Amino acid sequence: MAPVSLLWLLLATGLLLLAMAGAEVDGLLPAAMVALVLSALTAWLPLPALLQLGLLASLTSLGVLGLRRWSARQRHRSLPTAETATVISGFSGSDAGRVSWHGQSWRAVNLGSSQALSQGMKVTVLGRDGNQLQVLVPDED
């Protein structure tokens, strides 16, 4: 039978592979990190199985709560006024597309969804919801 530390390492590797494959499961990365720590701990210390499982559950829960708290703070960051972005792609037939803002590509939603936006068009950034910008074409007088 394989040593317990190797089993924790295999679990951590599997969880990390799932995360890299794009699985959207809350707690996947924190659980992988805890499994890596448990792999190192069990290589040096003979911990009882129930303690190992308890550490996995409690530390993963703390990691998820910490990430949610951090994410909530990041989500509500205010934007400077009158920021502009440039349309990269999308917005033809839908209200979603991609824009270049501060040198990076961002997913964006057009708040004036009845208007199609073409590549290279300048838009005003009105807000941000997580990793998605809210944009609108400025009025041209």
The averaged pLDDT comes out at 85
The level of helicity is: 40-55%
Strand arrangement, largest sheet? 1-2-3-5-4
The topology string of helices and strands comes to: HHHEEEEE
Q: Give the end-to-end Cα distance, rounded to a whole number of Å.
A: 76 Å
Uncertain spans: none
- Class derived from helix and strand content: alpha+beta
Q: Largest sheet at a glance? A: 5 strands, mixed, barrel
- Beta-strand residue fraction: 15-25%
Global outline: elongated
Rg value: 22 Å
Compute the number of helices: 3
> Tally of extended strands?
5
Task: Tell me briefly what this model is.
The protein is built from three helices and five strands; from the N terminus they run αααβββββ.
